[in-house]
Structures are given as structure tokens and as C-alpha cells.
Amino acid sequence: MQKVQETAEKIRTMEIRGAGRIAKAAAEAIRDYAAGLDVASMEEFSARIKEVSNYLISTRPTAVSLPNAVKLSSKYSSANVEEARQEIIKNANLFIERADRALEKIGKIGSRRIRDGDVIMTHCNSHAALSIITTAFEAGKDISVIATESRPRRQGLLTIRHLNGFGIPTTLIVDSAVRYYMKDVDKVIVGADAIAANGALVNKIGTSQLALAAHEARKSFMVAAETFKFSPSTIVGNPIEIEERASDEIVDPALISDLAHVQVRNPAFDFTPAEYIDMIVTDIGIIPPAMAYTVIKEHLGWELGEI
Questions:
Q1: Element (H or E) spanning 164, and its range?
Q2: Which residues pair with 221 in a beta bridge?
């Protein structure tokens, strides 16, 4: 249980960040917990697995990759403790392997939509979006990137360091300069923390601003997302909860302690309507937002949303 608690804390504090990395860490935690769980009865085994699953899921309410990873990894059908344990270990390993392959597939598929000379704008620090960009660059395409700072956690600094390592010409801008620079952009590529059944995107706060500016300027807006980032719970009517983080990520509490009429809000994500999304690049191919329902039904299953 100690390792599960350590993983959960790293996810909660964003030491482990990014929807894909969160998913893999959760799958590993479930796998290792099941492997070391010493119980005699199936009833106790089931209760302990459920307890740990719920504990991990509660750490970050918005990133749907987390509950999907936990639910896919912790599935079992056996009524025998040892057989159920082996099912969980197998399912978790399959999920981790699939997550690793997904990024490569997304990179190859999405890079085909990048043209020589493109200027690409990206937001936050999405491994899926970066896979498209770096794959296109390594294929010999002459591209450059405009990366947002992505306040308040400034994940854009991770993005520019990653791109610099590949030798990709990159410009860092403040979030509020998105509309100003959109005239210089050919494509916008962002990641996803969740995609709803109606094709709406939940991603790092400020993503909807990029989508709106791209729509106004008639620039292509692409989302890069593994299939495990689609939200089964939205099929059965459950909304995606937007996580609100501590105000001290934005401002030192001491600076506003005497301001009795001021509150600070810090939503970590926002919604981008499907109509502002041109395509979603997934590990099973490029799809329009309207196909989100099909991806959930055929590749994740209704039952994940009903748990």
C-alpha cells in the first residue's frame, strides 16, 4: 500500500504529470499492489483492489486516463484469488505496453498532416502532441513551433526544453499572446486530458482560447489523444469534473492576505467545443470529433462508464 500512496501523492502534487504518464503510473501501482497482496479470501481481495482503485482515481478528478487505466488494469473475471491476481497483472502490463505504442502511432499518423514549412502552435506539455511534432521534424520537414508558457505551472518550459533537444526552432510566448501570434501559425496541435462522448475536449486551461483564436483565423486545430483518454462515463450521463487547484499556484497568499473582498480561482482545465476541433489524432487513426462515441463504445466499452 505504501507504493500506491506514494504514486497517488506524486499524481496529486503533479510530480507525475501528463495524462499518459499518470495512466501508466496508476497501472503500475495497481499491478504491483495486486502482485504483493496477501489475502486468503476472494471477498477480501476484491475489497482491497476496489479500495486502492478508488483511492488512485480520487487524486486527479479530470484526467480521464487515470480512471480508465485503473479500471482496465484492475479488471478480472476469476473467482480464485491467484487467478484474479494474474489477470490484473496481465491487464496492467497490456495497458502499459499499449500506452507506449500509442505515442509512436500518434506521431506517425499525425506527422503526415504536417507540411514542410509549417509553423505549429502548441500548449502545455503533451507527449502526444510533441510526438507528432518531433516525428515530422525527424522525417526532414522544415517546421518551427510557438509554445505557450502555460500558466500557472509553466509546463511550456518543459515543452521548449524537449523541442530544443531535437533542434527544433521554438518560440516561447505568454498565454495571452495566443491571438496576437495566431496570424503566423499554420496549425495548432494540443493534447487531451479527456474527450467526451460528444467530441468536446477537456485540456489544460487556456486550450479553448487557442481553439477560438484558431477558428477565427481559419487555422487547423488538431488534438492528439490516445484512445484511453476518451471518457466512457460521459456516455451514461456523467459530466467531466474540472479540477480546481490551490490559489497559491497563482499568487503568494501573503500578497493578498489583507484583501478581504478578493478571491483567487485556479481551474486546471477548460472545455473546448467539438465544433472548434478539426481532427483528433489517435492511435487508431485520425477521426472527427463526432466519432468519439464510437471510439468509447468499440475500444473502451460501456461498462467502464458504469462502474
A1: helix 156-166
A2: 188
Q: Which of 32, 116, 118, 124 is catalytic?
A: 124
pLDDT tens sequence across 62-104: 778 898 999 899 999 999 999 999 999 999 999 999 998 999 9
Distance CA 123, CA 207 (A): 7
Cα separation, 145 vs 285, whole angstroms:
23
CA nearest to 221, candidates 107, 78, 75, 123: 123
Does the annotation count 184 as an active-site position? Answer: no
Give Cβ neighbours of residue 239 (< 8 Å, ≥ 6 apart).
Answer: none
Residue 36's contacts (CB-CB under 8 Å, 6 or more residues apart) are: none
From 118, 193, 278, 283, active-site residue: 193
Catalytic status, residue 124? yes
Amino acid at 166: F
Does 257 score more than 50 pLDDT?
yes
Does the pLDDT value for residue 224 go beyond 90? yes
pTM listed for this prediction: 0.89
